[in-house]
Amino acid sequence: MNREIDRKALLKRSVDEITGSRRMRRNRKAGWIRDLTRENTLTARDLIWPIFLIPGSNRREAIDAMPGVFRVTPDLAVKEAEKAAQLGIPAIATFPNIDPALRDQTGSHILSADNLINQTTRAIKAAVPELGVITDPALDPFTSHGHDGILRDGIIVNDETVAQIAEAAVLQADAGADIIAPSDMMDGRIGAIRDALDAAGFNDVGILSYATKYASAFYGPYREAIGTQGLLKGDKRTYYVDPGNTQEAVRDAALDVEEGADMLMVKPGLPYLDIVWRLKDAFGLPTFAYQVSGEYAMIRAAAQNGWIDGEKVMIESLLAFKRAGCDGILTYFAADAAVLLQDR
Ligand code: PBG
């Protein structure tokens, strides 16, 4: 049916009458004024670069599900660290893909003072001392089952895992790690790590708690990267947070704050910006988010297909973390983003 519409009759009031002469577009009218009024900005100083490690020397391997990301040997990790420092990236975070023969039921190789993580930390700290090094004492790269804790009779045993993680944290601090960032979600780990670090004289080594880590499918490509994909039996829902929950996430973070966390992290990132905002608002601690492997892969894949403008989406996604209250972002885009931000 074709109805005649009298447009004049529809407009009962002029726009000035409707808005009371307030016009939001005045502050958007040109680039210079948008620059002046922008509330949040992104710089290389906001980024933490996660780097995957393999043993050996002068070798790098591609990761299928993470185009543009490589596993590198410690000597090449030093090169990446130098690049990070040059680009103004404040810190890197290392994740190892260790020899399968070294993985066992309890992840015991994490307690080797010269394992791949600690070896690389020493090399980086010797070459680029001004760059922050963040290490993870979670057991998953070291266990034969890919879980973050010790597995006994089908159960991830909390307290025994915490004791081992605390010991691993001390070894990582001894190798030169500036910040210990435990990603395992065991109860009581923050307090135990703080106690152990202090007892060993590492009072100045901080703790960045993966305060709320969700049981997420966005971690898929990471498991390829560290070689736990084929190993992991079951899932991590007995220790990570259920994706439907917010109150639980805030309570979990509150415990970490009480136990002595210096900084908080939310993981994954973009799908959980509400949690970033909640934690920042509730605790006011430096708050970070991890733009995880699956988020990276989605943006890269769409960009490779020409479906989105990869560079623009990358920068916009990172800026969104700042807007949500993040002080910084762990992202596989760190180096690429820093290069782009340099030219601006
Ligand atoms: C486990 C760990 C995970 C990630 C880093 N450490 C999750 C998992 O494998 O369950 C995910 C990082 C990413 O997806 O980029 N301690």
- Largest sheet entry: 8 strands, parallel, barrel
DSSP summary: helix tally:
13
Report strand %. 15-25%
**What shape does the CA trace take?**
globular
Rg (CA only): 23 Å
Q: Structural class from helices and strands?
A: alpha/beta
List the bound ligands.
Answer: ligand PBG
The CATH homologous superfamily name of the largest domain equals: Aldolase class I
- Residues in helix, %: 25-40%
Spatial sequence of strands, sheet with the most strands: 1-4-5-8-9-10-11-12
The end-to-end distance, rounded to whole angstroms, is: 53 Å
CATH architecture of the largest domain: Alpha-Beta Barrel
How many domains would you count in the coordinates?
2
Q: Low-confidence parts lasting 5 or more residues at pLDDT below 50?
A: none
> Which sequence of SSEs, written as H and E, runs from N to C?
HHHEEEHEHEEEHEHEHHEHEHHEH
CATH class of the largest domain: Alpha Beta
Q: Could you tell me the number of beta strands?
A: 12
- The pLDDT mean sits at 97
CATH topology of the largest domain, by name, is TIM Barrel
Topology:
Blueprint: H1 7-10, H2 15-19, H3 31-37, E1 47-53, E2 60-62, E3 70-72, H4 74-87, E4 91-96, H5 116-127, E5 132-135, E6 150-152, E7 155-157, H6 158-175, E8 179-180, H7 189-199, E9 206-213, H8 220-225, H9 247-259, E10 263-267, H10 273-283, E11 287-291, H11 293-304, H12 310-323, E12 328-331, H13 334-342
Parallel strand pairs: 1-3, 1-4, 1-12, 4-5, 5-8, 8-9, 9-10, 10-11, 11-12
Antiparallel strand pairs: 2-3, 6-7
Helix pairs in contact: 4-5, 5-6, 6-7, 9-10, 11-12
Ligand PBG is lined by residues 138, 140, 148, 183-184, 219, 222-223, 236, 292-293.
